[in-house]
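Journal club prep, notes for RB
We'll compare a predicted complex against what the paper describes. Inputs for the zinc ion case:
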Amino acid sequence: MSMKCTECGTDIPQNAKFCVSCGAPVGGDAPTRQSQPKRQQWLYIVSALVVVAAAIIIYSVSSGPETATDPHAGMNMQGMGGQASGDPSQGAMGGIMRELAALKERVAKDSTDAPAFMRLGDLYFQIGRFEQALGYYSGAARANTASPEAWTQVMHSAFQLGKFQTALDACDQMLGINSDDTEAMYNKGAILASMGNREEARKVWETLVSQYPDDPESQRAAESLKQL
Ligand SMILES: [Zn+2]
């Protein structure tokens, strides 16, 4: 199962050593509430409630990418709307459901529709369904192999699922597109460290620090090297 980064609140797998969203080291200790600013605590509580509510809704209308071609998805939504009458957010939920159905129709018709794959990935990522998100982001990356945005999202969702090798491959794809991608370099080190490969992580971060000394990612790398 996953836990939350104590610095930025991103979901991270249990065995991660560094957060790929903010670079914070992930200690063996469970995050303590005292260590978090009050404002962030509230943010976590509110976002957790939103995620749970959205997850329930989307679970009820869809079982994931397998149903991407289901032409009856729209009918299920109408059934849901009837049950949820009186709920003030019903309109917005109906909107999300219609968007999901329309997007799934688009990718079913055209497997090269990268923007539709990306948006589907984003919607599933936002509600914490990283497995589905990874599937759709991978679709976007296949549709447009030169898209660093798609590979970045493949990296983040794979990392959150603890699929470190997939995350690492995505970093290499990003570096293949742009060898000066310092964020991909930082993240490659964080992923290698999480895989237990501290020597390779050290090499990647030391290279980053020596080649791009003024880059903010190098500052993160220098901090992380101390924690390695
Ligand atoms: Zn973080």
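Talking point for the session: The radius of gyration is 19 Å.
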